[in-house]
Amino acid sequence: MKLQSLKPQDFHEHLQQPQILIDVRQPEEWQQQRIEGATLIPLATIPKHINQICQTHDQPLYIYCQHGVRSHQACLLLLSLGFEKVFQLEGGLSQWVSAGFPCQSGI
Question: Which of 23, 35, 59, 65 is the most exposed place for a label (fewest CB within 10 A)?
Answer without folding.
Answer: 59
